[in-house]
Amino acid sequence: MPSTETRSSRTWISPLTGILFLVIGITGILMFFHLRLPGLTVLHELGGLLFVIVTALHLKVNFRPLLSYCRRKAGRIALSIGAGLIGLSVVLGLAHDDAHRHHGDAPQSHGGRNDGQ
Fold it and tell me: Taking the CB of residue 88, how many other CB atoms lie within 10 A of it?
């Protein structure tokens, strides 16, 4: 049985994780389609940072159920697919960077804002 502290943490951590997921997803889609709105990039970036923190707390609070899930076949398949997608995105990202360097383009700096802010 989860402790009272764990249960009370779940009442706000799980919904906040879902809300931040939606914020990042929606802002990411808008950015993908180059729909630039004031504050969109800042909302996406800050939402992403908060999402990482809240997700870490969510994993901490739900660690035992997560381990139980990962012991089942469906959990192992989900982890394998997730790891494969992460690996694929790293490989594609590196290939994309190499393609730009070979054409004489300097690597892009992500420090500047390009969304009208």
Answer: 10
Average pLDDT, the chain: 85
CB 59 within 8 A of CB 66: yes
Residue 25 CB contacts under 8 Å (≥ 6 apart), including other chains: none
Q: What is the DSSP letter of 105?
A: P
Cα distances (angstroms) measured from residue 42 to each of 6, 12, 17, 99: 32, 24, 18, 28
- Cα separation, 19 vs 64, whole angstroms: 23
pLDDT of residue 23: 96
**pLDDT < 50 positions in the chain:** none
Global pTM reads: 0.65
